[in-house]
Design a protein that fits this description.
Radius of gyration: 22 Å
Order of helices and strands: EEEEEEEEEEEEEEEEEEHEEEEEHE
Oligomer: single chain
Number of helices: 2
Distance between the termini: 41 Å
Structural class: mainly beta
Number of strands: 24
Largest sheet: 8 strands, mixed
Strand content: over 45%
C-alpha cells in the first residue's frame, strides 16, 4: 500500500487504533474539473492497510477546504467503509446535502434507493483541495471513539488552458497548460530565446506553504514542434533557478505531445521563499519560465 498525494487521490499515513492500523483514501472525480464526461464525486474509503479490508460502520466528520475557505463540514456514515458523495456543482448559493441520516451523529448515509447528493459551489475550478477527515465511529454504529482518528488529505484537480502562439517562422502552434494549483495567465512563447513563461497567483507566506505538499504544473506542446524538442530544459520560478529534479519530461502519456512537468515539493517552495526574501518583498504570484537547453 502506497501512501501519498496524487492527481485527484490521496492516501495519508495510517493511524494506530487499539493495535490496528487504519487509514483512508480520499478521491475527487474527475481528475480534471472541466471533464464533462465523468460524473463528479467525492469518495472516501476507510481500511486496514495490512489486510486491505474495509473498516465497518464508520462515521466520518469531513471538512472540505479550498483556498483557505471551508466549503462544507458535515458527518457522513458508511456502513461498509466506502463513502460516495455525488456532487452537482452550482455557480453560487449554499451547500445542500440530501440522503438518509443515521441516528447517532446524524451522519448522511446512502441507501440503494437514495444516494448522498451534494449541491452547491463545489468543483467550479481546478486546484488544490484540502480534506480534513476525522473518524468518530468504527466496527459498530454506536462505538463512539473517545478521541477521533484524524487525517489530512490534499487532492489536486486539474484545469487545462489553451494558448495559441507563433513560431519564429510565423507558424501557429498550440500550447496547453494543465494546472493543478491555480489559474494560469500571461502565457508567452519567445521564439528568439526559445523560452516559455506563464504566471499564476501564489501566496508565499509561511502559513500557506506549510499546508501545501507540492505545486504541479504541466506544459504540453506538439512533438512536431522541433524548436522545443531539446533533450533537457532549465526551469525558473520568479527568476530563481529550479533544481533539475523539478523538471521532468514525458513523451509517452499523450501520443502527439511532449509534456514537461514542473513539480515543486514543499521543501523547495521554502527554499524559493527564502531566496526571494533576501532580494526584497515577496510577490503574490509564481512566474514560471522554461528554457530549452542547447
Amino acid at each position: 500500500q502506497a501512501f501519498g498525494h496524487g492527481l485527484s487521490i490521496d492516501t495519508p499515513p495510517p493511524v494506530n487504533y487499539q493495535g490496528r492500523d487504519i487509514t483512508i483514501t480520499a478521491e475527487m472525480l474527475p481528475a480534471f474539473y472541466d471533464d464533462e464526461g465523468i460524473d463528479k464525486q467525492i469518495k472516501i474509503r476507510a481500511f486496514d492497510p495490512k489486510t486491505g479490508e474495509n473498516i465497518k460502520n464508520v462515521n466520518f466528520l469531513i471538512g472540505l477546504n479550498y483556498k483557505d475557505e471551508m466549503i462544507f463540514r458535515n458527518f457522513f456514515f458508511a456502513q461498509n467503509g466506502d463513502l460516495t458523495i455525488k456532487v452537482y456543482p452550482t455557480s453560487e448559493g449554499e451547500i445542500e446535502i440530501s440522503g438518509e441520516k443515521e441516528p447517532l451523529l446524524g451522519g448522511w448515509t446512502a441507501t440503494d434507493e437514495k444516494p448522498i447528493e451534494l449541491r452547491g459551489p463545489v468543483f467550479n475550478s481546478g486546484g488544490l483541495y484540502h480534506l480534513e477527515i476525522a473518524i468518530r465511529t468504527v466496527d459498530e454504529p454506536d462505538n463512539l471513539l473517545d478521541e477521533p482518528i484524524k487525517y489530512d488529505a490534499y487532492i489536486s484537480i486539474g484545469h487545462t488552458t489553451y494558448h495559441d502562439q507563433k513560431t519564429k517562422d510565423g507558424q501557429d502552434v498550440e500550447f496547453r497548460v494543465r494546472s493543478y494549483y491555480d489559474t494560469i495567465t500571461n502565457f508567452q512563447y519567445n521564439p528568439k530565446g526559445n523560452t516559455i513563461s506563464f504566471e499564476m497567483p501564489f501566496d508565499w507566506s509561511e502559513q500557506n506553504i506549510s499546508q501545501i505538499p507540492y505545486v504541479h504544473e504541466e506544459l504540453l506542446f506538439p512533438k512536431h514542434f522541433a524548436d522545443l524538442l531539446t533533450p533537457s530544459y532549465k526551469g525558473q520560478v520568479n527568476g530563481i533557478d529550479l533544481f533539475k529534479s523539478s523538471i521532468t519530461v514525458d513523451d509517452y502519456s499523450v501520443g502527439d505531445s511532449r509534456i514537461v512537468h514542473f513539480l515543486l515539493v514543499q521543501d523547495h517552495l521554502k527554499v524559493l521563499r527564502d531566496q526571494q526574501k533576501k532580494i526584497g518583498d515577496l510577490p503574490n504570484y509564481m512566474k514560471f519560465k522554461l528554457i530549452a537547453s542547447d
